[in-house]
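Morning, I've got a small favour to ask if you have a moment. I owe you a coffee for this, so here goes:

…
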Amino acid sequence: MRIVIPLFDRFTALDAVGPYEVLKFLPEAEIVFAATKPGPIRDVPTSLALTADAAFDDIDACDVLLVPGGPGARRLLDDDALLGWIRRMHGGTTWTTSVCTGSLLLGAAGLLAGLSATTHWGAVDVLESFGATYTAERVVFQGKIVTAAGVSSGIDMALALAARIADQTTAEAIQLAIEYDPQPPFDAGSPAKAPQAAKDLLARGI
């Protein structure tokens, strides 16, 4: 089972690494990080890098496509080469998935028109501009397309996907292996819950 995760400059690392840590446990999983060309791709300049194993042009098909988001995703919404590649991959996938603003790339590729989908709360207007209907859920399944909300929800999505690819017991075993037992110290993980002071600080840039 080939799982391909495309990388691009200024992707959000946890969007890719969170699902990777889950899906790598699936039987016979082969995970390939891809980019315009092989080599290190950074989440922000001079910061964390992941290594792309292959170029997009080297991959002709995959079973699972997992598109991360990040600040760089918005810059690629009119990148015909990447969007065309996403469409080609989607044509042969069993599952096409996204995390955070990765859903904007699915939308720009024409895959979300008429579907319910989710994304980071700060990108709802862009998501809906592609004909999707935003729903404020952590994970949304629409046929073979699966979208996850912001950043950390990629782990939830990957566990839900693992249950469908394998079974619930396998997914639960993976959850136990990574000790995914969220107990956040604060209840500020969504705009509906976050105190105004936190929103103000984020708006100023943290």
Remarks:
- The domain at 2-204 is CATH 3.40.50.880 (Rossmann fold).
- Residues 78 and 94 are 25 Å apart (CA to CA).
- Residues 80-92 form the longest helix (13 residues).
- The chain has one domain: 2-204.
